Amino acid sequence: MLARWRASLVILLAAAPALVVLAGLVGAWLTPAGDALQHQWRYLLPDASRNTLILVTVVAIGSVLLGTTLAALVALCDFPGRRFFSWGLLLPLSIPGYVLATVFAGSLDYSSPLYSWLREEIGWQWPSIRSLGGAALVLTLTLFPYVYLIARVAFESAAQRYLEAASLLGRTRLQATREVLLPLAAPAILAATALVAMEALADFGVVAALNVDTLTTALYRAWYGMFSLVTAQQIAGFLVVMALLLLLLEQRARQAVRMRESGGISLRRRRLKPLPATLATLFATVTLGVAFAWPVVHLLSWASTHVAADLDTRYWGYLLRSVTLAGLGALLIVLISTLFVYARRADVGWVTRGFAPLATAGYAIPGTVLAVGLYAPLTQTLPWLQGTLFVLFIAYITRFFAVGHAPMAAGLARLPMALDEAALLLGSRPLERWRKIHWPMLKGSVAAAFVLTFVDLMKELPITLLTRPFGFETLAIRVFELTSEGEWERAAVPALALVLAGLWPLKWLAGRMSHAT
Amino acid sequence: MRLGACNRLLSITLAAVMMLAALRSAAAEATEPVVVYSARNEQLIKPIFDRFTAETGIPVRFTTADAAVLIERLAAEGKNSPADMLMTVDAGELWNAANRGLLRPTRSKILEANIPATLRDPGNRWVGLSQRARTIVYHPSRVDPRTLSTYEALADTVWKGRLCLRSSKKVYNQSLVAMMIKAQGEAATEATLRGWVANLAAPAFANDNQVMEAIAAGQCDVGIVNTYYLGRMLQKQPDFPVKVFWANQRSDGTHVNVSGAGITRHARNPAGAQKLLEWLSAGEAQRLFAGSNMEYPVNPAVEIDPLVRSWGSFTSSRINIVEAGRRQAAAVRVMDRAGWR
Lengths: 517, 341
What we know:
Helix content of chain A is 78%, strand content 1%. The two termini of chain A are 25 Å apart. The mean pLDDT of chain A is 89. Chain B is of the alpha/beta class and 341 residues long. Chain B has two domains: 150 residues, Periplasmic binding protein-like II (D-Maltodextrin-Binding Protein, domain 2); 138 residues, Periplasmic binding protein-like II (D-Maltodextrin-Binding Protein, domain 2). The longest helix of chain B is centred in the first third of the chain and has 22 residues. Chain B is globular, with a radius of gyration of 23 Å. About 2% of the residues of chain B have low confidence. The chains are: A mainly alpha (517), B alpha/beta (341). Chains A and B meet through helix 2, helix 11, helix 15, helix 17 and helix 21 of A and helix 1, helix 2, strand 2, helix 3 and helix 8 of B.
């Protein structure tokens, strides 16, 4: 499709900002920084690394189990409430992880009314939510929709005739799903899992709210506590190495299961018998209840006392700015990741191929480190950029590229090269080929990439905080302002607005997904 | 893509760009504004800045973020920085900024008269603007206040399983420990912290509110918090069962930190910034600055919020608060060694 040098240029340009940040991290390793790192190795990093590894593994496995099961149920079966759950299960994406963590800590910890009542009346006790297990639970509940969405698209675009073939070979529906559909969807599920794992790797909000020590908290301890940004960047270097290993693992696994899909008659859903149908409805309801309804109700009760005093016309401005930044950012990221996945499909040299994964590594770098790591070199080499939104968008792209890239890469991987070749033989022009053949099959992925990035950017804080112009407040920044001194109940007002603003794009996405398949 | 869709996309993008342009239109001000980088949050500073502008005609522009991030931003921007003033919510970050050469000294008779010397930088690069007392709180029906004395005494085994602490990641605890190191040395401080950790009733909490809620719910009996968190709690719930005990009254005094500010090295409007600092250090501004968050004014002549006054007067530490910054990194190491997470 793209000429070789153009493809290489696209890949290198897309990876450039990430390379700047990564160069900074490498530079940190070459900078003497006293013995802060040795101190941390002795007292913090062994535990922190272990916790990070456990957290990433548990969250990845949990999200795959939860996301894939729900995706299979919604895509392949019919049960009461399926239509609602098909988009409703995306709702937890609109709740920032640290908000869910704080709600859980507030409603499940020892001093919560629920725990107090159960303890005193029934004598029940349970392990503290403020623990590694609690952090893994919260992260799984906020991140599984990535896997759910991407797996669902993959299941829904699988052709009916695969299932029919399996059925002719005497497989039950369940066996056919496991042996045929799951391998078909595997590349997409793996891509989504890598995304979830990177997000868990870089998470600071959830682990800080539950006071669990991980590599990210060790990083902030070195920076904020010991005033050593260099040590923090060295630790960020570990995170990036771990992320690159993850990406490598994902690529390996993806190659092993690579299969391509040539379209065909789409799936007919099977109506479940009453008992399994009830169980399916119950499962989806409980998941959504815990990951979405509960925190929203909790936020509502917090907000109710402050709505009258806090909610005023300023919120239109916050909302407008949040939506504008997230919308433009998501648009840019989708555009660039579309070019990028096509460029990767082209025959580029191994050097360029080697650079490509670096473009998505930004997702594993905590936002604050990434923002500072880009701000300094950008504003020092190009001072006129200071105070413009250019730095903000570059940082958005660097950090969230992976989110837009995953659905696009998974979508394009399903299109066989043979399709292009056939079209080429028929003498079609590149744009025509794209419009007539690729776009109809990719628009679901484009919509997914846009909305996932949009919802993530709405929640984004550290980059916006550092690079915004004076007096530029968004909903996420409002939440930060109020929580920075512990005013959680007042912060519920902007937090709810943030959730509400994420609702309609998610619902729209669900609609697009059904049209697309 | 159909042409219609293309056009729609284009017009959406255009509209968005125009909105952005409109949002950015910070109209050129007549008087040169004072530009503040603030770690103190918007709702606490904006009303006061608005008042300053109304009284003096000098506009104030500000942006907020974590102090560590603002300091990196100042350092990266260097001479090009628009900032005239850095405002933080603890002394450690001000010390760090000064130590990195990002703040300039300011000699001002007004500041010297209004702010006690222990709450100012000895090199005059920053001043405290409000005091945040971090002291012991307890449950009145389970603890007899006569059994309380010092922070250090909470390491005693009588408090085993009865103490709640916030995470050592929070700078407020790091400052407290830094001042303890200054007063008693690292070894004695480490022994105290080991005792605290051994006495914990629950893993360290993420914030002071959770510490007080745990005390109220009976998970523990004593804790160490900044008093303004209790003030806010009492505003919502006047019968909240947690009381203040002023620690170390017979020895080195209760630990206070400051929320404060300094003028930046490359300030474009240092005169305006100094005027703002001086204005904040006295009168109604000083009362509002501290009172809006139930903190203590730095200026002894200024009236204290009635609820805050109800906790009684106390003697605060006589050691200059600059030590909180100077010894913060050492404090973090001691906390790590003692296993305070």
